[in-house]
Structures are given as C-alpha cells and as structure tokens.
Amino acid sequence: MIKAQNLHKQYENLVAVEDVSLEVGRGKIFGLIGPNGAGKTTTIRMLLNIISPDRGSVTFDGVPFNQTMRDRIGYLPEERGLYKKNKLIDTILYFASLRGLQGSSAKETAMEWLRRFELERYAKRKVEELSKGNQQKVQFITSILHNPDYVVLDEPFSGLDPVNQIVLKEILQELKKQGKAIIFSTHQMDSAEKLCDEICLVNRGNIVLEGAIKEVKQKFGKNAVRVEFVGDGSFIASLPEVKKAMTYENYVELQLNGNVSSKSLLSAISSKVDIRKFEFVEPSLNSIFLDVIGVPDETRQTASTKPAASLKPATVAGDKRVRNSMLMFVVFLVAALVVGVINLKKGESNWNGPLLLMAGAIYSFIKYLKMKKKVTLEMQQLAPGGADAE
After folding, report:
1. Which residues have a Cβ under 8 Å from the Cβ of 77 and sit 6 or more positions away?
2. How is 301-364 classified by DSSP, letter by letter?
3. Residues 278-331 pLDDT 10s
4. Distance of CA 13 to the CA centre of its chain
5. Which of 13, 117, 141, 248 qualifies as a FRET site for 291, CA 20 to 30 Å off?
6. pLDDT tens figures, 188-246
7. In terms of pLDDT, which residue wins out, 313 or 79?
8. Where are the alpha helices (DSSP H) in the chain?
9. For residue 47, which of 78, 26, 69, 68 has the smallest C-alpha distance?
10. What CA–CA distance (Å, rounded) separates 355 from 344?
C-alpha cells in the first residue's frame, strides 16, 4: 500500500499542494485526477521523493521511502526522458541495468515488451526516429521492465492512438491482477472512469472529491438523464425541468430539478427533435468533474480553503533555491576580484588563487542558470492552464 498523509508543498506565496492524504492498496488502480495546474504532478513527485514535502509523510507498505525502494517503483513521468541518439533496445537495456537487470534475461524481457507493443522491428533504430506515440510506449516499457510493486503513471495515454490506448489499458488491468499498487494521473476523465477503482479529484492543490468510482457516481447520480436525439438540441438546457445540462453533438446529459415528471420532459423535447434514446443514468465522470470544478471563477471561490492572497503567483527570482545559487556566484566572483586586486598591488606572480576562485564563480553561475531554468519550468507547470505541477 502507498499511503500519504497531509502532504503540503509551497513555493514562496504559491500553495501547490495543501494537506493531501491518500491510500492506494495492492491490486487497485487509483486515479489522481484534476485540471492542468491542479497539483497532480507535484503530489506524485513528493510520493516518489523527487521533491520533499514541506510537511507530511509517505510510506510504502508501512515503510518510509529509502534508496532500496527505488527498484520496487515504476515511474512514467509526463515529460519524456529518453536518449534520442541511442538505439531503442540499447535505451531500454540501459534503464533495465539501472534497476539491476542484466544480460540475456534483460534483453529477452525487453524484446517481449517490444513485441507486445509491435515495436520489435524498430529495436535497432534511434529513439529520435520514432513517432511521439511510439516514444511514449518505449518510456512505458522502461518504467515496468523490472516488474515493480508500485506503478506510478503520469498522463500515460499522451500521444497514443486509440489502438495503443486499448493495449495499454489491457496491460494496466494485468498489472492490477498481479497485485500492483497503481497510481494513474490524468485529466482525461473517460480514461479514469474506465480504469480506476478509486479516484481523488484535486483542484488548486486541494482534494475536492474522493472515493470509489461507484460511490462517487451514486452520490451525483440523482435525477440524471441521458437523451440521444437527431436535430438541434440547444434548447434543452433552457427547459424549466433542467437544472444543469452537458450538451454534445447528438446527445445531452441532464441533471433535473426536484421531482420532475419524465413524461413532461420527454414531451417537451420530442416536440422539437427526434428522440433516439431516453434513459435515467449514472452521470459520467466528466460531467461530475465539471460539476465539481465548475468555471474558473467558481473554482477560485470554492476549491481552496486558503484565502486568495495565499495563492499569489511566485516569482522565479524570489525562489529560495535561485537566490542561494545566485548568492554563491556573487561570493565567488567578489572573492576572485578582491584576491586579484591584492595580487596586483603586491605584484604577485602566482595567480592560482584568483583563477580558482574565478573558476568557482563560473561554475556557480552555470548552476544558477540551471536552477533558474528548473524553477521557471516548475512555475509554468504550477500556473493555471500550465503543464501542471499537476
């Protein structure tokens, strides 16, 4: 079991994740869902000890994260991390070696997975020659090749065509039957609805809805109607019987007001369009998602327990890590200049000291640029509509 308690992460004035707790049992697929920028990826990174929470704890079967735990975890990040100039099979075998898999057994396992995804003929090709979808399949292979106990997938269907989405869903069901604890992060509600046993809906760093899929649907399933029709159904949302409507191309999902007569609703709709199907149904996860999250203005008022002032966007320059790396650069630079001036005044011929300090300044400046770039990406991910720290 993966268990997180009261995880909290804040970047300067931006609360990325606020007191998130979750449990993922063996043989379960747990959906961590929410819009872009909700805090999903930040939560995953804290679960995997990629970044440290400001407070809170994470345990795997009751044991805190440690170095030996790495080989028991399979992680598919949203961003690709493949070596584009390397051959496909060499890339997979390299990642396998990092997990302790070596020799012919590793190659045999790798080829089995390549065959499963119909990539065997590309084994000798460079990664950069593959399509985006095929690269995603390779990265998935590298995340589960070592048969991990815990599988964490961040947007695994990204770039996959419908056929390969089916293949991946079948594999996830197999991993579930094998007793793996699976966390599946996505903002695609249809995928979460079909795959997950339980969900946790996160918005602006807070949990706003959680529970088993069936329980969540039952909670929101009162007076829910699906109507399939032929014609212009734009008028349906404005009918007095309708509380809320999700209108699509040729069908609509309705939430009705109070004790509405289905006969009167059916009569009102059939007078203007041809009805192909009329049924009371459980609401889709997508409609529940939109009902809970709402429009951005509603989200700002209801989804966070923190005052709006605590969610002011942070600046890159204000980040503590960026400030520290800049400080180190300045210290080395000033020291190099001071020692250099002293050498000039004394007429010293040995310039090793100033040169070493200048080398330290250059190295520190490079680290500063890298840290600035890293923090910039984090801020972009955490911004609403960004790639997410999801």
Report:
1. 139, 154
2. HHS-SS-GGGGPPP-TTT-HHHHHHHHHHHHHHHHHHHHHHHHHHHT-S--HHHHHHHHHHHHH
3. 988 777 888 888 878 865 443 333 333 333 333 334 566 667 777 888 888 888
4. 22
5. 13
6. 888 888 899 999 999 989 999 999 988 888 777 667 888 999 989 889 989 988 888 88
7. 79
8. 40-47, 88-98, 103-116, 132-144, 162-177, 189-195, 213-220, 262-270, 285-293, 296-302, 320-346, 352-382
9. 69
10. 13
Burial classification of residue 205, based on how many CB atoms lie within 10 Å of its CB (0-12 exposed, 13-18 middle, 19 or more buried): buried
At residue 186's C-alpha, the angle toward residues 183 and 190, to 5°, is 110
How high is the pLDDT of residue 299? 37
Q: Which residue has the higher pLDDT, 28 or 329?
A: 28
SS (H, E, C) 137-171: HHHHHHHHCCCCCEEEEECCCCCCCHHHHHHHHHH
Please give the single-letter amino acid code of residue 384: P
Q: CA Rg, the chain, in Å?
A: 27
Given a contact cutoff of 8 angstroms between Cβ atoms, the answer to whether 3 and 65 are in contact is no
Tokens 């460079």 appear where?
126
Question: ∠341-345-349 over CA atoms, to 5°?
Answer: 85
Q: Record the tokens describing residue 83, joined without a space.
A: 């070596």
249's CB contacts (< 8 A; 6+ apart) are: none
Among residues 268, 222, 273, the alpha carbon closest in space to that of 243 is found at 222
Model-level pTM greater than 0.85? no
Other residues' Cβ atoms within 10 Å of the Cβ of residue 251? 14
CB atoms within 10 A of CB 273: 19
**Among all chains, which residue has been given the structure tokens 């609403």?**
384
Residue from 156, 152, 121, 124 nearest 137 by CA: 156
The torsion defined by the Cα of 188, 194, 200 and 201, in degrees rounded to 10, comes to: 30
Under the banding of pLDDT at 50, 70 and 90, the label for residue 117 is very high
C-alpha distances out from residue 206 to 279, 320, 365, 375, Å = 34, 24, 37, 22
